[in-house]
Amino acid sequence: MVRTGSASVAAGPTLAVVAREAGVSVPTASKVVNGREDVAPETRRRVTEALDRLGYVRRPRFDAAKSSGLVDLVVHSLETSWSGAVLHGVEAAAHDAGLEVVVSAGLTRSRAGRPDRGWMDKLTARGSSGVLFNLAELTASQYGWLDQHRIPYVLIDPVLEPPPGVVSVGAANWQGGVTATEHLLALGHERIAVVAGHQRKMCSSARVAGYRSALAAAGIRQRPEYVRHAGFDESAAHRRTLELLDLPEPPTAVFVCSDHMALGVYEALAERGLRVPDDISVVGFDDLPEARWTTPALTTVRQPLSEMAATALRLLVRMREGDRPESTRTELSTRLVERASTAPPPG
Fold first, then answer.
1. Is 296 exposed, middle or buried (0-12, 13-18, 19+ CB in 10 A)?
2. Interval 141-184: pLDDT, tens
3. Has this prediction a pTM greater than 0.90?
4. Phi, psi dihedral angles at 22 (to 5 degrees)
């Protein structure tokens, strides 16, 4: 469903009020609002600050009939194989739909922490058909701006629980956590630890919940000291693994909530002279190319990143045409990919 929110928003300040606040003419303020380049940097700064301070909302509305053949993809970073898989899925689906993709790395923010109004104004100026946000943590202001302009948007694997009515696509993270843990249980492991991402992020908390559910179903006591959070950071995962190994009764297996963090886990185990899987088993999550390149190759839970991205693009196209999705949340299934990093516990 396309969230508009316009009915509940009171009329904001006029452009004349913004111009007066910034000490410029109305035509100059209009140039800034419309993303024109022929404005001095200092003048643009004053107008932009006035726009933010007064909460000005542009009046133009999204019109599918007048929109361009462009869609915007905002990714968390362009430096990871994760983003590469997402971009591949979006581009393939966009090609089928006759659309082109404009890629941005993150939502650039001002020093004050406000959304970069320049990026948003350019989005409107080029008549984008809609926006896909991957791993984005949007603010209430950004949601409000998109809603006010009635620009269709879809979240791919949102970081936090999105507001009601926002369309999102993700993976079955809870089931993935169950599957990873059940695999280790079937091999005979009972001392199973988890190196998770951020506690507050949707995907991480769901994977840990799946891990806990699988242990409970098997009648295995869940040890609080076996749950470590590393924020999806390789170096932090390395440190958390060393902490696990220093426990009086260290785990015989570790479920790592991302393949990227698994690299840090491998490094920590090697430092302690432990072999995978002879001394300790490791299961990852994502099935990125890194999972196949490690030694030994990583057993992991595959989430279909390219398929998630393509699904999001197709939903965006439907929303652009005024079609309302049956559900605001779409989850694609995960599956275990067995490789060489898991085995029965030693002894």
1. middle
2. 788 888 878 889 999 999 889 999 999 999 999 999 999 999 99
3. no
4. -85, -10
